Amino acid sequence: MDAGRLIYAASESSADLFYATRFFAPDPFLYLEEPGGGVTHMVTSALELDRARRTARCDRVHDWAQIRTRWQVGHPDAPPSLEDLAAFFVVELGIARLRVPGEFPLLLADGLRDAGVEVIPEAESFWPERAIKTGEEVAAIEAALEVTALGMEAGIGMIRAARIGDDGVLWLDGEPLTSERVRGEIHACLVRLGAAPHHTIVAGGLQGADPHEVGSGSLFARQPIILDIFPRMEGSGYWGDMTRTVCRGEAPERVRRAWEAVRAAQEVAFGYIRDGESGRRVHDAVTASLTQSGFPTGTHPETGRQEGFFHGTGHGLGLEIHEAPRIGGKDQTLLAGHVVTVEPGVYYPDMGGVRLEDVVVVEREGCRNLTRFPKFFEI
User: Fold this and answer.
1) What residues contact residue 121 under an 8 Å CB cut-off, 6+ apart?
2) What is the pTM of this model?
3) Is there a smaller number of Cβ atoms within 10 Å at the N or the C end of the chain?
4) CA–CA dist 213, 352 (Å, integer)
5) Cα separation of 216 and 163, whole Å?
């Protein structure tokens, strides 16, 4: 027996639900696809009903209040729970089996099972086809990357304009230039352009040795500064993602060599990525390139900290900042239409970090870089 598909979530936070409906809502609502890819349904409150009927990609939009009225015909003295109403609606449609996302609410699943509906959680992607981007989706990601580039330009512009103090601290407009100031300017730029920033990284010096350190305090000359910007467009829901590493003034030789090694490793990845290629093979080639350039990966014998290149080469990008496929140690096959980041980096506690990140679309004979922002180091 074929199964339908059911999601209960807020589409502002559920990429699967937004993908199905193209309808943004801050509060949870029910989405159901009948078995065999049949009729699609949404159930919302009156607050969203008219907007959903006007804009959602869905065959039928229902009001919870009307379902409640029908339910109460057989239960006149008992106030219904959400689980009661959802199960009633599903049974009313004659559906006996449903596939749900792994994060589906447990109480709702129990209510459906109590009503005799088989609930099958999906361990993998709920909509596997989401990984293959259409031309329209690629264009939406390109638009997000253009906005990301303007945010990057605003942040690097502040670093470029800063004066180098006697102690190496960067100064701008009579005040020390801090990670917080640069991040604030990036965020202001992104918001003006209709994008929502998320945990933008501006990590200078030794802070950059931790890939996810957002950065704080004064920025210094002659040290690497990692800027990693990944906003979500409020209109389309698609994400941009870009990383650049710059240095105000002359960089130490080791840091300059690290930047060149990372850039060369990224080019190695570009050369491998194509339809049918192994993501692990790409990752291994990037790791080998960095090692051959003098930046090996391992654990420091005294501190136990990881050093070198110890994260994946890339990840899928779309309605989520991290989605399928991954380019890393777990092998996944790259297919035409995948949109992935390519972000090699090296990190050492006594040097800081260097990372470069572009976004490419996988094609039959190679890949096409969607990122237009240039790469430069010393400014």
Assistant:
1) 99, 100, 101, 102, 104, 109
2) 0.94
3) N
4) 11
5) 19
